[in-house]
Write a structure and sequence with these properties.
single chain, 164 residues, mainly beta, Porin, eight-stranded antiparallel β-barrel, 1 helix
């Protein structure tokens, strides 16, 4: 539980720093990974409307795991008045610590998504599908280090952002 408090403190410190540069969308999301054991998580997303970068942070509730995803939405086009689509590339980082093991990993990301906007583009509902292969190291309870590689990781995320 201490890890979740640290993750929450990081997010709360990051909001004012990031939000000071431009109009920012902050929200929550639910992520389900099609290729690994799913875990419940709460998310905070930060995205500037004038830049192609998006930052998504996940704090997993059932294990001490924290994830950060930094994505560049190099295509972000409007399909209709309330509907946009985007194509992204980015990087990921994850840290997991519990009684049995510790894992640190990083990886590349490539994906697509949809944005639905309401209330003069102040409320955004989004969904995205990403391919996120990653590698890292795992330290088990016997202090044995082993490599970690998952070439097939497909997180699907749905959430909303409030723009201010």
């Amino acid at each position: 539980m201490k890890f979740n408090k640290i993750a929450l403190a990081f997010v709360l410190l990051f909001i004012p720093l990031y939000g000071g540069f431009c109009r920012t969308g902050i929200g929550g999301a639910y992520t389900y990974n099609l290729s690994t054991t799913p875990t419940d998580c709460v998310s905070a997303t930060f995205r500037q409307d004038t830049q192609p970068w998006s930052v998504l942070t996940n704090a997993h509730l059932d294990c001490n795991k924290f994830s950060v995803f930094v994505d560049n939405w190099f295509i972000n086009e409007r399909i209709a008045e309330h509907l946009d689509y985007f194509v992204l590339w980015g990087i990921s980082g994850e840290f997991l610590k519990n009684d049995e093991k510790m894992e640190i990993s990083t990886g590349a990301r490539a994906g697509i998504g949809l944005d639905f906007f309401f209330f003069r583009r102040h409320l955004e509902i989004f969904t995205q599908f990403v391919w996120n292969p990653y590698y890292g190291i795992k330290l088990n309870e016997d202090n044995e280090i082993s490599p970690l590689f998952r070439p097939a990781s497909f997180p699907c995320t749905a959430g909303l952002r409030l723009w201010f």
